[in-house]
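Figure caption, in words: inputs first, then the predicted bound structure.
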Amino acid sequence: MQTYLDFEKPIEELDLKIIELKEQNLEYPSEETITQIAEAEQLIKNIYKKIFSTITPWQKTQISRHPERPKTQDYIDNLITDFFELAGDRSFAEDKAITGGFGRFRGQSVLVLGHEKGHDTNSRIKHNFGMPKPEGYRKAIRLMKLAEQFDMPVISFVDTPGAYPGLGAEQRGQGDAIAKATECCLSLGVPIIVVIIGEGGSGGAVAIGTGNNVLMLENSIYSVISPEGCSSILWKDSSKAPEAAEALKLTAADMLKVDVIDKIIPEPLGGGHRNRSKVIEDTGNAIEEYLKALSNQHGNELKHSRQERYLQIGRNGLFSEKTSAANEALDSKFGKIREPKNFIKHPVFIGLIAIIGIAALGFYWFN
Amino acid sequence: MNWITKFVKPKLKSLLGGKKSLEIGEEAWVKCKQCQTMLYSEDLEKNLYVCPHCDLHLHIHPRLRMKHLFDEGAFKEISYPTVQLDPLNFKDKTSYKDKFKEAQRKTEMQDAFLIGFGKIQGITTTVIGMNFKFMGGSLSSAGAEAMVKAAEHAVANNTALVIFTASGGARMQENQMSLQALPKTTIAVQMVKDAKLPYIVVLTDPTTGGVTASFAMLGDVAIAEPKALIGFAGPRVIQNTVGETLPDGFQRSEFLLDHGFIDQIVHRKDLKTKLAQLLSLLLKRAA
Ligand SMILES: [Zn+2]
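Bound structure (zinc ion present):
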């Protein structure tokens, strides 16, 4: 059963019509049926073109969470051969919100990692809706270190609403686990290619989403907080999520502008869920291209270029200390050398204060 | 504001019996949120913003903290690069620019981070203090640059880096620039660690959200002030999202010590001595 988003409702009827036409004339479809199908398909294209010509960040948010949008497991099934799954953090538990293992990507041994949201009610519960607990991040660290040990690239798929906010998760150090996973990403001597395939939800995404290159599907989102969360905190009204989505600038196009990502992977018309095999194949091609480009870097080079990538983010609008008027103002205000109180007790200063104080007194009263 | 208003006006005001305005723009009276006592800020200042009645550790301005931490109250304040303000042109009910400028005015800081350089019992140290009163101590793009600047300064001067954290998390109004501050601040920590210099974290109330998912949890040694709230997801978020009732003392320093995430809980008045002891051991200085 296909799910249709609110703005996709006109498509549903046409989809059903096409299915009906195809089922009626399985073996020898008439000229007329073929024409009708083509017309309906053209109509779908036109409707989608219209939707996408004015698509809002909130609509993209919904597409990024579409139940039929390919998930990490779909990418693994279609892009990785000989997948050998790995489980557990070796100290507390296995966390199915993060899937990982060895495999072959277009002939090359790789370590694959990714948040897994699941595709139906049962699997969503099993994978905790893609919200990892500390053991998920610690398993990711364990796997990334294995990748380094066996000198193979890491391919990481990001698709999470965020880290799981629960009592046990906090007890076991959710912050600690995320911080150390990010630190691990930043210290690895093998290539890391990240693809944001759906939702890039905050620190829980960064933890396995910090790489040499970050690619992002056209309708994916990447944000420090969900539009719903942002709206309830800043607007004090959870119904303002569409406005929050707009204000947060969380689309792939926004990410490319500020160099948070390196490439947008275009999606089929209507979004990845309308043509799953196409979006998976295109993603595979993009990963291959970026892996190839990194093949001349090794060990520490990879680590340093990755660190440099993250140091440079946000520095486009950076004003150097010498030219910054704001800093000069602050320096003159607080002084580069600051010795409060002691300085004030100095006799010369007290004398000075007495003189200037009189002037200031006048200044104070006449103002 | 010029230096006349900064230094002289408050003195005059107190002479003239007006409202006492402290150097760091604190309110004259503060209510202790634990014992509800009204506390005169001058008394509080003497007591390092620890409630004299119930020992609650209140927010303290980093400039004041450093004055007490560094020998003879002397330290050099180090500015950090200014970044483009409000890259997203973010507006909710009010504009981010207005909130930011108000915070700068109120705290007399560039952003939520203050970098100080001076001596702790003779040991030259680079220190970062965060101010919760600067937009909830939220982590911004400028904040990340402050971490990098402090780390570079520590490495260049061969000193340890000590940070006093206080933050509600990421600065939503900068969305992605704030999120990318997690890797950036982590790199700052790596710089210090790669130089084999100590990176010491002192967790103060509150330290939650993005900060807890990056530099606050990466200390070689982690110390906390008593009863500080420390966690990734705040208690309200947990309660609202998963409906779990939280036990007493959940996410407090004592809870973290019990669960193995910090090394010691140290009272604010003992921090200087404890830090000096630790730094002296790590940097192999004579006792
Ligand atoms: Zn009290």
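Residues 141-156 of chain B form the longest helix (16 residues).
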